[in-house]
Amino acid sequence: MTAHPHDAPGTDSLDDLFGDAPAPRPALGAAEAQNGLLKGLNPEQLAAVTLGQEPALILAGAGSGKTRVLTTRIAWLLRQGHVGPGGLMAVTFTNKAAKEMSTRLSAMLPYNVRGMWIGTFHGLCNRFLRAHWKLAGLPQGFQILDASDTVSAVKRVIKAMNLDEERFVPKQVSWFIAGAKEDGLRPKDIDLRDEQTRKLAEIYQAYEDQCKREGVVDFAELMLRAYELMRDNAAVREHYQHRFQYLLVDEFQDTNKLQYAWLKMFAPPGRGQGVFAVGDDDQSIYAFRGARVGNMSDFEREYRVRRVVKLEQNYRSYGHILDAANELISRNSHRLGKNLRTEMGPGEPVRVNEAASDFNEAQWLLEEAQALHRQGLPRSEIAILYRSNAQSRVIESALFNAGVPYRVYGGLRFFERAEVKHALAYLRLIENANDDTSFLRVVNFPARGIGARTLEQLQDAARQSGRSLYQSVAAVPGKGGSNLAAFVNLIESMRNLTQGLTLREIIEQMLETSGLAEFYRTDKDGAERLENLDELINAAEAFVTQEGFGKDAVALPVDELGGFTPGQIAAGDPPAIAAVNLTPDAETGEIVSPLAAFLTHASLEAGDNQAQAGQDAIQLMTVHSAKGLEFDAVFITGLEEGLFPHENSLSDGDGLEEERRLMYVAITRARQRLYLSFSQTRMLHGQTRYNVKSRFLDELPEASLKWLTPRNQGFGSGFAREYQQAWERGSGLKSMVGAGRVERQAPAWQQEREGKDAPSFGGAPVPKTMKQAAAAKVGAEHGGLRVGKAVFHNKFGEGVLLTLEGSGPDARAQVNFGRHGTKWLALSVAKLTPID
DNA sequence: GGCTCTTTCGTTTTT
DNA sequence: CGAAAGAGCC
């Protein structure tokens, strides 16, 4: 057993942690605290904020002031002296939420909140593991793999094991491994129910060995390692359980099994800590990723929660919008039960629009958004939401062609860009040359004559000796070997040249020595990449300033930090604080170089996907990424069966309920104005699909809706029919096929709104093959039935005819019945009535 | 070793 | 349809 302190310090010495804070614990009178902090809270918020040291579940509806409650509670606890800043932990999911909390707290407290345990699950686990790297069995400077690093690491394992990549798809295998870890399972714990799983467990084991050899951990590993150390080391466990008297968890509905287990290690039920779990079961949209809404009810039961506080007062949206949200979500079962209310009045009705095609829908979005902007709404207050990323394309092209600034969220993020990853790989090799992932990324970039054959030899050698690629270079003979040796020399000289430099200088030096800068300077489209590399330097500079790695950084007294002495933490002597820019971590006293700290930062925080920042632009994003945001005007697009709710989610009831929650999240993003739109036809995977409007539209209260297009116009009656007729006549077909789309006169209702000459565009359902064309022709022979036509079936209801095949008694039709799915029907038996 | 042709695949994804 | 990754060619 390692010598480990469990004489956890009292709250007093923890307060000393904040040596730079003027008054660690001001004794405020209740009245003053009331005025300063609690003013303006509604009764439920106040109740939540001022709860005692007990387990509590806060059901925080959308727009109910959740973040305010969380931060105010922290400030209140500190100012009341219920706990010191070191005795409290607040966990979130996103860096953004953590940052937001810290910023707001700084404004409420007289301390520097840096050093407090406020952060993401992964960020806090990282901090914990950096402090206890030795006990956790990690190398001191362990690096963190992001999602794509993880996949390529897994891929290497699969290759090394000589397994078929068709059968073991790297991405899926890495999913399997992450899933196992998130269930708290190591390879030996995997249930080997079949041959495939047995093999997967083997890959998992080999992957683990590889990570260990390279000194890297993936995201899931951060959580699992931290959990295991708490579970297996009584001294550590005792210390932290004693230390953290109050724990606050944000977005509790999104926690997975491991995160909940992790939390229970820090604050087991019955130990009397104040665990404050905030969440909204109706906004649980990450079950597909392992989130367990059930953790909320488990928490309530296991912690014998007596106080469930519901925050139902909504400060964001007008009445019609909330009515729509409430009515929709009421259709879900197993809810914890919550109804949003507002005092803002009914506001405007929810507008509903039906379009003939996805192209048309985009055109309508563009015009409506422009109208809003002309009325004085900033573009950044207009959000266009969609279920899946592929839907953004048509919308983007409409906006782009009209010259309207827009910003798409969810693309490549800063630290994920290829050139930035290359630069980071060099930096990582300076820190840890055994990081094979980074080695392979840049060993031949820029090109230095090291090809696949050479690398194969190198990897064989490394595998045989159980060493890293870097260490195995000498084993490769010939020209490849000498090129490899040159690369090693390059890295070594880089390490020497950057000794004692500031972070900025290190990066600049690396860019030149590695040849990266030169490569992009001569590359024909390297200009943008060079800019990003400059941006990397800026990011590093900002990081240095923010995290206090500046030249004036002063070493804090380490022996009082969190009750661990440096010697005890590391079970060895920490490096001396010699060079400028070497600052011990405020919490652990561990000496970190700014470079190492920056690399960790880069792994844990992928950065924004910066589009033209600063420009007032319309916001485009998936519904998932809209969670937590709000806008004056929101468009929810593509409300069609199969798209939203998505067809892949329809196989089970839980899937549908998650889709409904997703719709609920989408609706509750809107403050003043909400638009819902759907289209009769849509281009997907290069094929035109005829869709039925989403069932979610039928689940909204009629009284809150205003149809911009005639209600229930009937599918297949608009554009699709017109095109079909034109095609059958053979008129105008050539131009339609040539352009891939058709121009036509707008339907009557649209002319009424937009003027007589309004043109209308639609994606044409161009038959792709002769076979399809023939089938469509056959279809024309069946009394009144045509592809694209709306039909009615006694059992399945309204649907859209997709295909007609055969003739006479063999004639059959494929019909999309929306919620009943797509069916093949024999026309001699099934009775299909065309609807007009 | 780098370029071009071909094949494959397409829901959402906070870290 | 269109991106991205892999295979194959010079």
Outline the structure in words.
- This protein is α/β, with parallel strands linked by helices.
- The strands form six sheets. Strands 9, 10, 11, 14, 15, 16, 17 and 18 form an eight-stranded mixed β-sheet that branches.
- Strand 15 (631-636), helix 28 and strand 16 (670-684) form a beta-alpha-beta unit.
- Mean pLDDT is 81; it is low at 1-29, 550-583 and 713-780.
- It binds a DNA duplex (15 and 10 nucleotides) through helix 5, helix 6, helix 10, helix 27 and helix 28.
**Oligomerization state of this entry?**
single chain
Tally of DSSP helical segments = 33
**Major sheet:** 8 strands, mixed
Q: How much helix is in the residues?
A: 40-55%
> What ranges have pLDDT less than 50 throughout 5 or more consecutive residues?
1-29, 550-583, 713-780
Q: Specify the structural class.
A: alpha/beta
Number of strands: 25
What is the straight-line distance between the termini? 80 Å
Main features:
alpha/beta; DNA-binding; single chain; globular; 836 residues; six-stranded parallel beta sheet
Topology:
Elements: H1 11-16, H2 30-38, H3 43-49, E1 56-60, H4 66-79, E2 88-92, H5 95-108, E3 117-120, H6 121-131, E4 143-144, H7 147-160, H8 170-182, H9 195-214, E5 216-217, H10 219-232, H11 234-243, E6 246-249, H12 257-266, E7 274-279, H13 294-302, E8 307-311, H14 319-329, E9 350-357, H15 358-374, E10 382-386, H16 392-401, E11 406-408, H17 418-431, H18 436-442, H19 452-465, H20 469-472, H21 478-497, H22 503-514, H23 516-522, H24 527-546, H25 566-570, E12 583-584, E13 591-592, H26 594-604, E14 618-622, H27 623-626, E15 631-636, H28 653-667, E16 670-684, E17 687-690, H29 695-698, E18 705-707, H30 719-729, H31 733-739, E19 741-745, H32 748-754, E20 759-763, H33 770-780, E21 790-793, E22 797-805, E23 812-816, E24 822-826, E25 832-834
Parallel strand pairs: 1-7, 1-8, 2-3, 2-6, 4-5, 6-7, 9-16, 9-18, 10-14, 10-15, 11-14, 15-16
Antiparallel strand pairs: 12-13, 16-17, 19-20, 21-22, 21-25, 22-23, 23-24
Helix pairs in contact: 3-4, 4-5, 6-10, 7-8, 7-9, 8-9, 8-10, 10-12, 14-28, 15-16, 17-18, 17-21, 17-26, 21-22, 22-24
The structure holds a DNA duplex (15 and 10 nucleotides).
